[in-house]
Write a structure and sequence with these properties.
Elements (H helix, E strand, L loop, with lengths): L2 H9 L3 H5 L5 H8 L3 E5 L11 H5 L3 E5 L7 H4 L5 E4 L5 H7 L3 E4 L9 H4 L5 E2 L2 H11 L5 H10 L5 E5 L22 H14 L3 E3 L3
Parallel strand pairs: 1-2, 1-6, 2-3, 3-4, 4-5, 6-7
């Protein structure tokens, strides 16, 4: 697909052509198999912790959206995958330098040509977004979508960093929980239930 075809498909919400740019989900599952994964959220509280070394020691480090990293001590330095649901500038992409970008948002019009044609690009299916939205009763965050995806893989361990379900707000903005369209109580319950049922999933600092 060329850039014009991409722009037409994105504007007219033609999912099938956009899907041709994505690697199969099986590629992600194969890469995750047997790995110790660190999923790094953007809670402000993480900046007050010293989890950077543990994050960088994981087999695979996944960050979210604009992935702020105020210090190596708190956040580490590596990014293998970037789970994205917002527009992002080239400066931020250069800083984060992910080996793979996953577009998790159902809002396809925010997807850029440079992201969609990046190596290993993955487009999260609309059906999976809708299924998790129905379970949550609200649009899921990028973090919740990633946790759901990762938990369905054959990874060895999933360690969550920087997830406090908006108790300390986000490093990437100043909005409160009641100013965003997510249900953080439902997401917290979802994660707590998952951790109780799946010993591979743990939360740093818990």
């Amino acid at each position: 697909m060329n850039r014009l075809g991409f722009l037409v498909a994105r504007t007219l919400r033609r999912e099938a052509p956009l899907e041709t740019l994505s690697v199969p989900a099986a590629d992600l599952m194969a890469e995750l198999s047997g790995k110790r994964v660190a999923l790094v959220g953007n809670a402000r509280s993480l900046a007050e912790r010293a989890e950077g070394a543990e994050i960088d020691a994981a087999d695979l480090v996944i960050r979210i959206n604009r992935a702020p990293m105020p210090s190596a001590a708190s956040h580490g330095t590596r990014t293998d995958w970037l789970a994205l649901a917002t527009s992002i500038g080239e400066d931020d992409l250069g800083r984060i330098d992910p080996a793979r970008i996953l577009w998790m948002s159902h809002k396809r019009k925010r997807l850029s040509w440079s992201v969609a044609t990046s190596p290993g690009f993955y487009l999260h299916p609309l059906s999976e977004f809708a299924a998790l939205r129905d379970r949550m009763g609200a649009p899921p965050t990028t973090g919740a979508m990633m946790i759901d995806l990762l938990a369905r893989s054959d990874l060895a361990a999933l360690r969550l960093h920087g997830f406090d379900f908006f108790a300390s707000l986000s490093l990437t903005g100043s909005r409160r929980a009641d100013q965003v369209p997510h249900d953080f109580a439902a997401e917290k319950a979802f994660v707590e239930r998952l951790m109780s049922e799946d010993s591979r999933v743990t939360q740093a600092g818990a």
